[in-house]
């Protein structure tokens, strides 16, 4: 089923030749989540809880 005009097809990560390929939006969400996790780890470390 082809997407209608104005709709976007959901693109999933693709695994080819030992590499994983993402679309730009997925990559940005992934690295944003990693950034937040690292920020929380620093805060917990400075507070002496981690």
Concise summary:
By secondary structure, this protein is of the alpha+beta class. It has one helix and two strands, in the order ββα.
Describe how the helices and strands are arranged.
Layout: E1 14-16, E2 19-21, H1 24-46
Antiparallel strand pairs: 1-2
Notes on the structure:
The chain is α+β, with helices and mostly antiparallel strands. The chain has a domain at 14-46. Helices cover 46% and strands 12% of the residues. It contains one helix and two strands. The chain has one helix at 24-46, and strands spanning 14-16, 19-21. The chain has a two-stranded antiparallel sheet. A hairpin with a 2-residue loop joins strand 1 and strand 2. The protein is elongated, with a radius of gyration of 17 Å. The termini are far apart. The model has no long low-confidence stretch (mean pLDDT 87).
Report on the biggest sheet.
Answer: 2 strands, antiparallel
- Level of helix content? 40-55%
What's the N-to-C terminus distance? 49 Å
Whole-number average pLDDT?
87
Which structural class should the secondary elements be placed in?
alpha+beta
Indicate the multimeric state: single chain
């Amino acid at each position: 089923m082809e997407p209608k005009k104005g709709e976007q097809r959901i693109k999933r990560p693709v695994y080819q030749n030992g590499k994983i390929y993402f679309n730009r939006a997925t990559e940005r969400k992934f690295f944003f989540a990693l950034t937040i996790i690292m920020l929380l780890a620093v805060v917990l470390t400075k507070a002496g809880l981690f």
